[in-house]
Amino acid sequence: MALLEVKKLGISFGGLRAVDDLTMSIEDGSLVGLIGPNGAGKTTVFNMLTGVYSPTNGKIELDGKNIIGMKPNQICEAGIARTFQNIRLFSKMSVLDNVKIALHNQVYYSLLEGFLHIGAYHKKEEAMNAKAMEILKVFDLQEQADYKASNLPYGKQRKLEIARALATNPKLLLLDEPAAGMNPNETAELMKTIELVRKKFKVTILLIEHDMKLVAGICEYLYVLNFGTLLTSGAPEEVLHDKRVVTAYLGED
Amino acid sequence: MIQRLFKNKSAMISLLVTIVIYILVIVLVSAGLLSRQLTSIIIPVCVNVMLAVSLCLIVGFLGELTLGHAGFMSIGAYTGALITLNATALPAPVSFGLALIAGGLVAGIFGVLIGVPVLRLRGDYLAIVTLGFGEIIKSIINSLKLTNGAAGLSDIPKYATYKQFTLVYIIMILMILLITNLVNSRHGRAISSIRDNYIAAEATGIPVSKFKVIAFVISAVFAGISGVIYAHNVGILKPGNFDYNRSIEVLVMVVLGGMGNIKGSIIAAVILTLLPEVLRGLDDYRMLMYAIVLITMMIFNNSTLKNRMFKRKSKAVEKEGA
Fold first, then answer.
1. Which residues in chain A show pLDDT less than 50?
2. Mutation for B interface: A87, A112, A115, A144, most B CBs within 10 A
3. Does residue B27 sit at the A interface (CB-CB below 8 Å)?
4. How many angstroms separate the CA atoms of B307 and B318, rounded?
5. What pTM value is reported for the model?
């Protein structure tokens, strides 16, 4: 059975039908791309998957369980983590704390223990630190653990966002334009990182991307959105040479 | 626990400063080196520090603007005063202890009642509603028989004058310690994450509304307790003592202290409470000078001079409130 099943998903904002009749099925362990021209509704799909918007109609099932109606934090606990198109880090906090926040639901101690720094506090905090550092090491961010997140260079901020998402221990990772604003070198590095993440964390990935080199390079399957509806789907080499897809991006001649 | 303390340099320094200040105040008071005015302001300084630190949790760490802090303070003050006024049979320490607990609890209950609906609002709207809440509380106290209306409560036993400095000081330090500890825990990080980016916080699994209410209630409880101490310091309570000016005063302390900086809030609270008294000699120019000092502090806060004075390691973060 597929990890994520999306059936006839649709959402309207007033009279605007932003996404309509979208059906997707994402297999466990796969790396899937969601592409389409600007304004096609890709980020809206992400927002519905993560509970930011509630769909007008349709079904979303993670591991066979309905997640529509759940709050974003509950969906995160259920196993979907995401990054954002415009980076959303906890910018005034340290790099380490950014990751530690993501461990919130995995390492537990009570409010009283937090107040008094007694009982499990020190042990659990140390465990959190160790786990967060381990994740930072994967992204080569361990040296900057004490930096304020907003002081990181752009590429590393993107990495930190992925690290933070992974720290929530997701089954499905949603990456919203991970390569946006990156130069070719950084993009190449990012591709390696994504591959590494996939192997190391055994996580299923769905990503939105405009960089076709990246999409063609790492995605195993593509869904193409245009004007909120599914234009086509299939293996990257087919889809990217599909005349309808090219037309959607570049217009007709 | 103690071993950890000795390992932690900044905690050691904080402990040292705490003790030095305590001894300094005790020596100055017992040697009679302080004027009567200054002696009488010792406890108000402590009260304002408590208020500033508790508000710092909402404004500095949760990142929400509230203007109703005086409301929670007044709830605590009146609850505490009514207990000590009516429980005359009990020995003083017991009734004052009861008053402190009840004042904090009742303020906390109001914190839940108001926090749950109000914290759905954000930014300006929250500020407006909390401002309204403060005024409503004031009006209710003004019209209730129990609180003796506009005449207020008088002859409240003075359990918190400068003679009880040790007790008040301990309560204040405890409060600061608790909030500092909280900020450096998983709950505190969750609260700060909401300030930095609530959408990301939700997406990272933080139950945002829950932590907003938690922060709001903790802050209300502490404001209530400081209200109890205030009541037993001045001995007279009038609804007018708790108008929005009072809330703004505390807010100014938090903002000047550098939002999300507990030490800064404490220093600002001390300076801004002492200032009007110290400037009393200037008579007519007092408020003018007060304004000038405020502006100077604001400029100083953002100046390179400050950065040079507290040379930060260029790579290190400003650890929040640590």
1. none
2. A115
3. no
4. 11
5. 0.89
- ipTM of the modeled complex: 0.90
Between A76, A109, A124, which is nearest B204 by CB?
A: A76
Give the highest mean pLDDT range of B72-76, B297-301, B304-308. Answer: B72-76
How far apart are the CA of B79 and the nearest CA of chain A, in angstroms?
25
Q: Note the pLDDT of residue B313.
A: 44
User: For B231-261, what is each residue's pLDDT tens digit?
Assistant: 999 999 999 889 888 999 999 999 888 888 8
| Contact by Cβ (8 Å): B104, B228 | yes
Average pLDDT of the segment spanning B57-69: 92
A116 Cβ under 8 Å from any chain B Cβ: yes
Q: Residue A25 forms beta bridges with which residues?
A: A5
CATH number at residue A68: 3.40.50.300
Report the domain count for chain B: 1
Query: Smallest Cα–Cα separation from B175: which of A111, A119, A116?
Result: A116
User: How many other C-beta atoms can be found within 10 angstroms of the C-beta atom of residue B17?
Assistant: 11
Cα B276-B14-B105 angle, rounded to 5 deg: 70
Burial code of A72-91, b = ≥16 C-beta within 10 A, e = fewer?
bbebbbbbbbbbbeebbbbb
Beta strand segments in chain B, E: none
Cβ of B214 under 8 Å from any chain A Cβ?
Answer: yes
Quick one: pLDDT band at residue B5, thresholds 50, 70, 90?
A: low
Using the beta-carbon criterion (under 8 Å), do A114 and B187 form an inter-chain contact? yes
- Indicate whether A176 and A198 sit together in one domain: yes
Q: Do residue A124 and residue A235 come from a single domain? A: no
Structure tokens at B112: 């839940």
How far is residue B222's CA from residue B321's CA, in Å, rounded to a whole number?
18
- Report how far residue B80's alpha carbon sits from residue B288's, in angstroms, rounded to the nearest whole number: 36
Judge whether A85 lies within some domain: no
Give the CA distances from residue B45 to residues A214, B25, B236, B276, in Å, rounded to whole numbers and listed in that order. 61, 12, 18, 12
Instruction: List the Cα angle A15/A21/A25 in 5-degree steps.
Output: 145
Q: Residues B107-128: what's their mean pLDDT?
A: 88
Element spanning A56, H or E: none
* Radius of gyration of chain B, Cα coordinates, nearest whole angstrom: 20
Q: Quick one: DSSP state of residue B80?
A: H
Listing DSSP states for A77-120 in one string gives: HHTEEE--SS----TTSBHHHHHHHHTTTTS---HHHHHHT-TT
| pLDDT attached to residue B314 | 41
Tens of pLDDT along B212-227? 999 999 999 999 999 9
Do A108 and A139 lie in one domain? The reply is yes
The CATH number assigned to the domain holding B156 equals 1.10.3470
Q: How many CB atoms lie within 10 A of CB A227?
A: 15
Angle at B78 between CA B74 and CA B83, to 5 degrees: 150
Q: Give the domain extent around B231.
A: 34-309
DSSP state of B281: G
